[in-house]
Amino acid sequence: MTGPPHHDAPPSAIEQRVATLEALLTDKGLVKAEFLDAIVRSYENDIGARNGARVVARAWTDPEYQQRLLADGTAAIAELGFGGPEGEHVVVVENRPGVHNVIVCTLCSCYPWALLGLPPVWYKSPTYRARMVREPRAVLREMGLELADDVEIRVWDSSAEIRYLVLPERPAGTEDLDEEQLAALVTRDGMVGVAAL
Amino acid sequence: MRGIEAPPRRNGELVFAAPWEGRVFAMAIALQQRLAFPWDDFRHRLIAEIERDPQRPYYESWLAALEALTADLPGDQSW
After folding, report:
1. CA trace torsion B34, B37, B40, B41 (10° rounding)
2. Please, which of A62, A145, A195, B29 could form a disulfide with A140 given CB 3.0 to 4.6 Å?
3. Which residue in chain B has the smallest CA separation from A160?
4. Is A105 among the catalytic positions?
5. Do the chains contact at B24 and A35, CB–CB below 8 Å?
6. Å from B44 to nearest chain A CA?
7. Contact A127/A178 with Cβ under 8 angstroms?
8. What local confidence, expressed as pLDDT, does residue B73 receive?
9. Catalytic entry in A12, A42, A108, A159
10. Number of other CB atoms surrounding residue A23 within 10 Å
11. Per the residue annotation, which of A105, A125, A158, A159 is the catalytic one?
């Protein structure tokens, strides 16, 4: 048995392709195993929806920041120190009474990583990508978000140039909460627009 | 059966379903940082691979895109 020590089964064909590619890039001096480990850890643990939640909570508590955020998302987000691959050109779309926003990428899986972490499996699925544009109300209902018929749904299709982030409405009854407590209420799905807060 | 696979119910779900997915993801990030090519160079290949086979698992398309990118790298890496 020549598989990796912590696997009982031998490596699958796909695992072998990945290992071959890693060996090739390592030989070229372009990647290092420890660096790859660090990237995986950071995306799994550190770069996540908490960044986006901090942006949202700041916008809820600071009207001037909210204005800057809606006018130039990229710059306002950089004020909080967030950026990186796929973090550039962020446009923030605001939910308000009667208007609900939701984001999708019909071409592939464009997503504001720096703010939300890695896209979840369903976001990348062909079904979500196709159906969210065609029948958003039905898809949102299946995902557990029931919107009244008179709520307009705006679907934002991410592109090479632009990533979108939904600014959810501040939940009622949160007037006494500070920015940190508010950030804890903000979920990834709320910032994609597929869940209520 | 739902129209959407694994609909979200909460934050914090596992982002990589298997170690190789994280590996192949990290290789693209590392390569981009090392060689400083525009991220779109990779993204366009990813789109092409997804279009080639829309039902293929996402990270398999990612791997195919990265293999294609690697094959197109200059032979002599002197950076």
Report:
1. -100
2. A145
3. B40
4. yes
5. no
6. 9
7. no
8. 84
9. A108
10. 11
11. A105
* Region of residue A144 (phi > 0: left; psi between -120 and 50: alpha; otherwise: beta): left
pLDDT one-digit tens code per residue, A144-182: 999 999 999 999 998 767 889 999 999 999 999 999 889
Which residue, A73, A65, A98, A69, is CA-closest to A158?
Answer: A73
What size, in residues, is chain B? 79
For the question of residue A42 being annotated catalytic, the response is no
Residue of A nearest to B3 (CA): A127
Over range B51-73, report the average pLDDT. 91
- Residues of chain A found within 8 Å of residue B11, distances taken between Cβ atoms: 48-49, 187-189
Residue-level pLDDT at B23 = 93
**Has this prediction a pTM greater than 0.90?**
no
User: Which amino acid, residue B54?
Assistant: P
Give the list of residues 6+ apart from residue A66 with CB closer than 8 angstroms, or none.
A59, A60, A167
For the record, the structure tokens of B35 come out as 């060689």
Backbone angles phi, psi at A27, to 5 degrees: -60, -35
Nearest to A86 by CA among B43, B14, B23: B43
- How many CA atoms are closer than 13 Å to the CA of A173, on its beta-carbon side? 2
Q: Do A18 and B24 touch (CB under 8 A)?
A: yes
CA B12 to chain centre: 20
